[in-house]
Amino acid sequence: MSRSPEPKTEDEGEWRFGIDDVGPDGIVEDTPAEAEPIEPGTPKAENVVFVLLGVLLAVGLVLVTIFPNAA
């Protein structure tokens, strides 16, 4: 692997923004104009199971930490 003797500066890297991302005044637009709002949906059973498993695991770890000789 060859290394160049001169370190790269920030100006030599890739472009951070595309032409469409920058407005006419040079200001970066945070949200694209065609962004659609996020609509709520129904949770899937698989996701609910994993969330409940995580909650039970967290509660169990907290209880074991607080009461180490309870079991």
From TrEMBL:
Comp. bias (Acidic residues): 27-37
Keywords: Membrane, Transmembrane, Transmembrane helix
Keyword tRNA processing: no
Transmembrane segments: 48-67
Biased composition (Basic and acidic residues): 1-19
Region feature (Disordered): 1-41
Coiled coil: none
A Pfam family that the UniProt record links to this protein: DUF7312
Superkingdom classification of source: Archaea
Keyword Transmembrane: yes
Residue ranges of every copy of the DUF7312 domain listed in the record: 12-64
Full protein name: DUF7312 domain-containing protein
Species classification: Archaea, Methanobacteriati, Methanobacteriota, Stenosarchaea group, Halobacteria
